[in-house]
Amino acid sequence: MSPQASHDVIVIGAGASGLAAASPLHAARRDVLVLEARDRVGGRLLSAATAHPERALDLGATWFWDGEERIRTLAARSGIATFDQHLAGDTMLQETTGIRRLAGNLIDAPSSRFAAGAQSIATALAAGLPAGSLRLGTPVTAVRQGGHSDLDVLTPVGALHAEHVILAVPPALALERIDFDDALPADLTRLARSTPVWMGAVAKVVAHYPAAFWREDGLAGAAFSRTGPLQEIHDMSGPGGEPPALFGFAHARTVRPGFEQAVTTQLARLFGPAADSPVALHVQDWSAERWTAPSTVQHLADYSLFGHRLYRRPALDGRLHWASTETATECAGHIEGALASGERAARAVLAVPADADDTALGVTAPNR
């Protein structure tokens, strides 16, 4: 633990929202410390490396869409290459009665992806912070109201103090993992415990292949299934089809012994025998991630709570701020929503009005 224990702002979580909050605060000359429980940055931005230089497969967030200018501008400013999601080809439909081929891509909409994987966004944001301002492997166990209007932030290796704290983790996770000493308002506590965790009850499966053989058959790599285990499937190949891959979503509760074999069997039924033998099969069960999903994650289903007005109201005498994609009032659940929530928290700390010019944050924010 550094000898310095007091900071202007402590950000809990080094995912997209936490780093998006820390960056403008640092630019505004605030002393900011980011604490991350994992041994990496990115949170739900997680990319698996491949043998292809500067190419990765996303095990978490994948896309961004037209109109999401924060993330588009950040990628361009950071020199992160983006490309269009593959759309051409037909869709496969798997029902209890059999499999059908449907004309055209009926699942995917025009969207963009990151050639080096979405985690490269978090890596770029973290690289812009000063040395020593990011601590990995440092979970926060408690936040308490301290003396001199500060908040005490407790970790397994010692206590820290800050004028402001930004909670950049899913609200339900924060309430389960961090002890607030019953100081939060009852309505806020109920809201946070009830808010779903985006991707928290999902398993994402990525199958990496030697070639994008489905494209040669005129298929988009897109599929619906009413029988599973994967319920929807998309082409995850990189630019120009390299590296070739398919990915799909499954309910996390279906991940049990035999799951991987069931996945490859399903893919072979949908796309042909070549799909039965991927080079690698990645299964990312987000419900098993202790720093993403609370124990209640399977029972949280009211997505209307995303962006609730209480998340825009700082707690603990105006010193505790919320920032995660679940708290965003726009693009909640997307990377764009995570960036927007981090930006909102930074504005609150700096007391910058929401309609003020972006230069008031001390950074060049995207045009909106």
Description:
This protein has eight helices and 18 strands. It is an alpha/beta fold and 368 residues long. It has two domains: 1-46 and 118-196 and 290-368, 3-Layer(bba) Sandwich (FAD/NAD(P)-binding domain); 49-62 and 84-117 and 201-288, Alpha-Beta Complex (Polyamine Oxidase, Chain A, domain 2), CATH 3.90.660. The strands form four sheets. Strands 1, 2, 9, 10, 11, 12 and 18 form a seven-stranded mixed beta sheet that branches. Helix 1 (16-27) runs parallel beside helix 3. The chain is elongated and about 70 Å long.
Please render the helix and strand layout as text.
Elements: E1 6-12, H1 16-27, E2 32-35, E3 47-49, E4 56-58, H2 69-77, E5 82-84, E6 90-95, E7 98-102, E8 112-114, H3 119-127, E9 134-135, E10 142-145, E11 151-155, E12 158-167, H4 171-177, H5 186-194, E13 202-208, H6 213-216, E14 219-225, E15 232-235, E16 245-251, H7 259-271, E17 280-285, E18 320-322, H8 335-350
Parallel strand pairs: 1-2, 1-12, 2-9, 6-14, 12-18
Antiparallel strand pairs: 3-4, 5-8, 6-7, 10-11, 11-12, 13-16, 13-17, 14-15, 15-16
Helix pairs in contact: 1-3, 1-8, 4-5
